[in-house]
Amino acid sequence: MRVAIYPGSFDPVTNGHLDIITRGSKVFDKLIVGVLVNIDKVGLFSIEERVELIKRVTSHLENVEVVSFNGLLVDLAKKNNARVILKGLRAVSDFEYEFQMALMNSQLDAEVETLFMTTSAANSFLSSSSVKQVAKFGGDIKGLVPDEIIDDVIKKIKG
Ligand code: ADP
């Protein structure tokens, strides 16, 4: 069984993430979305909320699982028998950081491969932080995040 892990902060999940999840779910037998617990960074949504939002927007994808994790990504991969770390690439600017992470992860566990999927052109400008900026100043986030979570994002930003 080909299992892949798709890690990230997902604060909140965007249409760019959902696109990678949807396409990834067709390539692998099982895709595990891993929500990274970052103790140094306070997010907009709690980890539990992020997991719930991703579960909500991926409920139609039977082979997608959503978990939260802390610690090393390669340990999460090993625990789930995943040989692949799936990453999305938006722009050349993503590359340097992702390249470094991929090399570090292969240093930690040579059995795990990092594979990159290029963004769909329509989502290339999208990031969770830009969505939060737009929502904060009252801009329309329709088309940026899945429809099912628009109200959650607006409500959360308004506090
Ligand atoms: P961000 O906060 O930058 O939106 P995350 O850390 O939650 O991103 O991203 C998780 C993964 O999703 C990373 O591999 C990132 O490169 C990828 N990703 C984020 N946004 C997009 C997008 N619009 N298109 C493709 N991949 C994306």
TrEMBL record:
Annotated EC: 2.7.7.3
Q: Which GO terms describe its molecular function?
A: pantetheine-phosphate adenylyltransferase activity
Identify the Gene3D superfamilies for this entry. Answer: HUPs (3.40.50.620)
Q: Which reaction does it catalyse?
A: (R)-4'-phosphopantetheine + ATP + H(+) = 3'-dephospho-CoA + diphosphate
Listed SUPFAM superfamilies: Nucleotidylyl transferase
Residues of the Cytidyltransferase-like domain: 5-133
Cofactor names from the entry are: Mg(2+)
Give the location in the cell.
Answer: Cytoplasm
Positions with a binding annotation for substrate? S9, K41, L73, K87
The reply on keyword Cell membrane is no
Listed A to Z, the keywords are: ATP-binding, Coenzyme A biosynthesis, Cytoplasm, Magnesium, Nucleotide-binding, Nucleotidyltransferase, Transferase
Its annotated pathway reads: Cofactor biosynthesis; coenzyme A biosynthesis; CoA from (R)-pantothenate: step 4/5
Q: What is its main location?
A: cytoplasm
Q: Where is this site: Transition state stabilizer?
A: H17
Task: Give the InterPro entries listed for this entry.
Answer: Cyt_trans-like, PPAT, Rossmann-like_a/b/a_fold
Sites binding ATP sit at S9, F10, H17, G88, L89, R90, E98, N123, S124, F125, L126, S127, S128, S129
Would the keyword Membrane be found if you checked this record's keyword annotation? no
Q: How does it assemble?
A: Homohexamer.
Q: Which family does it belong to?
A: Belongs to the bacterial CoaD family.
Q: What does this chain do?
A: Reversibly transfers an adenylyl group from ATP to 4'-phosphopantetheine, yielding dephospho-CoA (dPCoA) and pyrophosphate.
Its protein name is: Phosphopantetheine adenylyltransferase
